[in-house]
Amino acid sequence: MDFIKSPLNYTGGKFAILPQLFPLFPKTINTFLDMFAGGANVGINANANEIVLNDNLVFLMDIYSDLQSKEADGIFEEIEEIIKKYKLSLTNRDGYNKLRNDYNKDKTPILLLVLSFYSFNHQIRFNNQHEFNTPFGLNRSRYNKRIKDNLKGFMGALKNKNIIISKKEFNKYDVSVLGEGDFVYCDPPYLITTGTYNDGKRGFTGWGEKQERNLLQLLNELNSNGVKFALSNVTHHKGMINDILLEWIDSKNHIVHEIKKDYTNSSYHAKYRNGNETKEVLITNY
Ligand SMILES: C[S@@+](CC[C@H](N)C(=O)[O-])C[C@H]1O[C@@H](n2cnc3c(N)ncnc32)[C@H](O)[C@@H]1O
């Protein structure tokens, strides 16, 4: 299977495990809701009558809306112009910082996309004031052919598939409109690991026990309505155990599929060699 890769090297991105996830998803889907879309690696590859990409990181979703509304050639030209204007390179920190200041003034989506090409680990991170604050990726991050190819494939799918962009808090999403034949994929921040978006200090909601329980409640509601769902998570990590999740799985008799992979190219999950392994799972109600 050939999968489309997000042009954003998104923290917690699921591209590397797509070959394990997709065979576990339902074969025919009416609406595919990617509730915590992030880099959209999962939703963009879905085959369904309708695909909804949802994430509460509004500035991220604005990039997708922008890409969807413009021609690919125009986007590539805009990117080249921005790179020229700010003289972006592997070493020009001042140019990067100038672009970052300008983006934070009016939040033009394409500027954020270009920032992500040159930012440290390509990370997209905001502070409490909703200012993008990832530092420069000196000698490491830049726009190149690989990113351009990914962007091309990604934009093609954004236009050719029936994709809807949504910017809601997961618990404000009206799931009562979903029914049998629809499918919800959830890849939330993980309670027992730390990503930049779940420390509650980024101006967005953060992720703690309250959010975890609310999400499980939402999945219960989907289950009662006959909607299929799949939840990505880790149950064990660095000696920590997600008891809330394990108890819920037991009480509902959901199915746990173990994911066999470490994130070799990501700082999100380190490799643990001393028995302190991360157990990554996909939990389904079907
Ligand atoms: C693990 S990432 C998803 C990665 C994605 N599956 C991929 O492959 O690129 C989790 C996402 O959840 C989003 N998120 C966090 N809290 C949220 C909330 N309360 N409502 C909606 N989205 C939220 C974050 O902005 C982040 O993009």
Estimate the helix proportion, in percent.
25-40%
* Main CATH class of the largest domain: Alpha Beta
Report the span from N to C terminus. Answer: 23 Å
Beta content comes to: 5-15%
Got a strand count? Answer: 8
Task: Look at the structure and name the CATH superfamily of the largest domain.
Answer: Vaccinia Virus protein VP39
Give the overall form: globular
Fold and architecture overview:
The protein is of the alpha/beta class and 286 residues long. It has 2 domains: 15-57 and 167-284, Rossmann fold; 64-149, Adenine-specific Methyltransferase, domain 2 (Orthogonal Bundle). Helix content is 34%, strand content 14%. The chain has helices at 18-21, 58-69, 72-85, 93-106, 109-118, 145-160, 209-224, 243-252, and strands at residues 31-34, 50-54, 163-166, 183-186, 228-237, 240-241, 255-259, 279-284. Strands 1, 2, 3, 4, 5, 6, 7 and 8 form an 8-stranded mixed β-sheet that branches. Helix 7 (209-224) links the parallel strand 4 and strand 5 (228-237). The longest helix has 16 residues, at 145-160. The protein is globular. Bound molecules: S-adenosylmethionine. S-adenosylmethionine (SAM) binds at residues 6, 10, 12-14, 36, 38-42, 55-57, 169-170, 187-189, 197, 205, 207.
